[in-house]
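ugh ok fine here u go
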Amino acid sequence: MSSERYKHYFLLPPPDLISLIEKKDEDIKALTDSFKNMKKERDKYYDYNEFHIKEITRLDKIIGKYKGLR
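structure:
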């Protein structure tokens, strides 16, 4: 933390630094949980999409057979 951007942290007393670190830790945990939920939803919709693509392909083959009978 020797960067100029973080120089103001040297002015904080230790209890304030600890509370700041704890708050940032909570923020990171919340973002991580949000990311995990978002990834789970993405995977669910990917599975739905894959199922629908397979189903459309199957139905197209059936329709193609019926068109061939005419």
